[in-house]
Specification:
alpha+beta, eight-stranded mixed beta sheet, about 30% helix, about 220 residues
Length: about 220
């Protein structure tokens, strides 16, 4: 199978994903109206990520691209500040990205630790076909880090998405508790090029639960 849960669980043979977590989390309060964010850099040195409400200047776009293009395994990948802040405080985190790579997984490994994401109950990652072995290895690091905590989060990983097969993915998005995020590039704003992030949509209003259930069923059945 191409999906997995905590090592203490039996293999999952159920197609309704919402039975595996508390769907009331999707009804969590969302602050304010939707807004657009441009992941960028601070103007001053050293280089560090900063969100902008306007399109960044070209020099900042160029510096950010150069940094994210050459980062190593231990370097800070620049993304969307607000998104990662929300990930660290959320109980439910769902990321849907057909182009999920080791770069995104390394940032997840950094952000989702027992110390920084102590509220986490469920992490669901749905990805495509690139770097799957490396992504699974990094996911194992996340699982190992949480293995001894008092309340071990449920962690699920499904891969194999292709744009010419259901659910026919193109866009990338995420859910943090009751909030829906849309990404112009890689989820989390982990992107070399100019990209925008939309946040503030209510997950319960955009059909997230039904989509999660149906996608889980389609992809997991395909891998049986």
């Amino acid at each position: 199978m191409s999906f997995r849960g905590p090592k203490t669980e039996a293999p999952l043979e159920i197609n309704v994903f919402s039975t595996l977590y508390n769907p009331n989390l999707l009804n969590s309060h969302v602050e304010g109206p939707p807004k657009l964010i441009w992941p960028s850099l601070r103007h001053e040195s050293p280089i560090s990520e900063s969100d902008s409400r306007t399109i960044p200047m070209v020099d900042l776009i160029s510096k950010r691209r150069a940094h994210n293009k050459k980062v190593g395994d231990d370097d800070q990948l620049l993304g969307c500040v607000e998104f990662w802040e929300e990930v660290r405080r959320s109980r439910l985190v769902f990321i849907f990205d057909r182009h999920m790579s080791s770069s995104l997984m390394r940032r997840l490994r950094k952000e989702i630790t027992p110390r920084t994401a102590h509220a986490l109950q469920v992490l669901l990652l749905i990805s495509g076909t690139q770097e799957t072995d490396r992504c699974r290895s990094l996911l194992a690091d996340i699982e190992k880090a949480h293995a001894t905590v008092r309340r071990v989060p449920k962690i699920f990983y499904l891969d194999g998405m292709k744009s010419n097969e259901a659910p026919f993915p193109h866009d990338r998005f995420a859910v943090t508790d009751g909030e829906f995020w849309h990404f112009g590039g890689t989820a989390g704003g982990i992107e070399e090029c100019l990209t925008a992030v939309s946040r503030g949509w209510k997950a319960k209003d955009v059909g997230v639960q039904a989509f999660m259930d149906e996608t889980w069923a389609v992809l997991s059945d395909r891998q049986r």
